[in-house]
Request: fold
Amino acid sequence: GLGLAICAHLVALMEGQLRVVSESGLGSSFSVELPLPPAPADPQQSPAPQLPAGLQVQVRGSVRELVQSLCERLQQRGAQASVYREDSAADSPAAVVLLDLVLDGPLPVGAGGARVVACREGGVRPRHIDGFWQVGLHRFDAIVLALAAASGQPL
Reply:
């Protein structure tokens, strides 16, 4: 209604983009992207972790908006990130890292190869458990570290 129109106007004034995704039975999801300048470097903060150049990542999860958002953020860090598709999993090169986003329920079955599971139980540092890397779902830098480790880069 009116709130969305006001938000759209404010975002347009700031030269940004407002996205709305709505699905019957699931509700609506809103996101705003603003062209902000980079923040000045903080000498007391360590630099953001980096991904190997061109790392291929497939992101799998039950919430489409979250999967797409993570793909976009990983692409900003230099990854070739895409949404996981079951029908193309067999054709994926061995160098692809699978990122599973688990909100609730059991861990999905691994597809073989390098894998990172981001879940609520995961911590702020990646842990290697039973052949895959586990990390907290809400810690983007930790997810980046886990993906780098899964690709063979030392932590």
